[in-house]
Amino acid sequence: MSEKGELDLTGVKLNTGVWLVKVPKYLSQQWTKATGRGEVGKIKIAKNQGKTEVSFTLSEELAYIQNASGKGAPISAPREHPFSMQSVGGQTLSVFTEGPSGQSEEKPDGSNEKLTFEGVVVQRAECRPAVNESYMRLKRQQIEESSKPFRLSLQLEKAVTTNYKPVANHQYNIEYERKKKEDGKRARADRQQVLDMLFSAFEKHQYYNIKDLVDITKQPVTYLKEILREIGIYNVKGTHKNTWELKPEYRHYQNEDKSE
């Protein structure tokens, strides 16, 4: 049940009792296949020597189950399902349904659902299939399906000729190592000389990424960043994210440059 839904209590009667019934998985799957009015079967409630007996009879059109592979004839599922009645056991259980709220505008948090209170659980039960020949066939099919491996080994009739051949080193790694060596070979220039190049560059543009500044100064990245931290600001968000600009005390831009 959603925690963000809108609870609709219109016309609620707290004394409305509902049953909480556990059903087999195959039965709930067959119910989803119902057509027309959505009739899935009938419930029969009878008295036998003063004891209430409840049973569910599955609709005939839903009584045939196709195996997972879709091959072979469908198996007839059990139609009769007697209920095993159980007490609520002192618990307070309620049933809610969730559906569209009917509002045209979606809420800011993205939820547009409402919860409707249906009633309080007054009876618990378990819907069990009658053990007969149909049930045994169904169980046999379920066991066979569950025992099938998810992956199968196939023998190739001819060699694979696609061009996925192993290589000693990928081109990306070669390029990376080459650039790394070139960066390491760059000699550190005098600090004042680097500052002059940076100030000259920032007179032309207000923002630069580190790659462009490396190309301009021809300095190692680590050394360049060390100098930039003293005179510049690194933008981590906004329009100029991941770029450097000068600190206010080092800026000499014209007013019209700032407005840009």
Question: Could you explain the architecture of this structure?
Answer:
Strands 1, 2, 3, 4, 7, 8 and 9 form a seven-stranded mixed β-sheet that branches. The chain is elongated. A hairpin with a 7-residue loop joins strand 10 and strand 11. It has helices at 25-31, 133-147, 171-185, 191-204, 210-217, 221-231, 255-259, and strands at 6-8, 17-22, 41-48, 51-58, 64-65, 75-76, 80-86, 94-100, 113-127, 232-235, 243-246. Helix content is 29%, strand content 25%. Mean pLDDT is 80; it is low at 254-260. The protein is of the alpha+beta class and 260 residues long.
Structure keywords:
260 residues, alpha+beta, seven-stranded mixed β-sheet, 7 helices, elongated, disordered C terminus
Q: Choose one word for the global shape.
A: elongated
Oligomer: single chain
Order of helices and strands: EEHEEEEEEEHHHHHEEH
End-to-end separation in angstroms reads 52 Å
Proportion of residues in β-strands: 25-35%
Which regions have little confidence, pLDDT < 50, spanning 5+ residues? 254-260
Instruction: Let me know the number of strands.
Output: 11
Overall SS class: alpha+beta
Mean pLDDT: 80
Provide a count of the helices: 7
Q: How much helix, percentage-wise, in residues?
A: 25-40%
How is the main sheet built? Answer: 7 strands, mixed
Rg value: 37 Å
